[in-house]
Each structure stands twice: as C-alpha cells, then as structure tokens.
Write a structure and sequence with these properties.
By secondary structure, this protein is an alpha+beta fold. It is built from two helices and two strands. The protein has helices at 15-20, 51-67; strands at 27-32, 37-42. The relative contact order is 0.21.
C-alpha cells in the first residue's frame, strides 16, 4: 500500500539565543501509523541548561498519551 503521508520537522535557533549562548529548546515528535497521524510541537521549556530535554520528553509523552 502506498503511504499517504510523509512527515518532516525542522527548527532554527533564533538570533537572540545564538548571541546569548542559549540552546534551542524547540522540539517536535510525530507518530504515524495506518490509523492516525499525531504531531506535537513544543516552543521550548525554559532557558536553563539542558531545557531542550524537557521539551523533547514533553512532546514524546504527550503524543504517546494521545495515541493510547
């Protein structure tokens, strides 16, 4: 069967984050199967070090909960 959907994601670190040495906290996660497509996007989880991990985990957790 031919796939009906294809997903992709991308993010660009903003100028303020680059100049101030902050990391990019944007994240996304997609679940695609034969029954549904779920896409979750996060605009960041704070500005502390490693805050991108919270953003990534949040997207995965929310998409997984929705899919169940």
């Amino acid at each position: 069967m031919k796939e009906l959907f294809e997903t992709s994601a991308g993010t660009v670190t903003g100028k303020f984050h680059i100049v101030s040495g902050k990391n990019n906290q944007d994240a996304s996660y997609t679940i695609l199967n034969n029954d549904f497509l779920i896409g979750v996007v996060s605009d960041g989880c704070g500005s502390e070090s490693n805050s991108e991990i919270g953003s990534q985990l949040g997207c995965r957790m929310l998409a997984t909960i929705i899919s169940e």
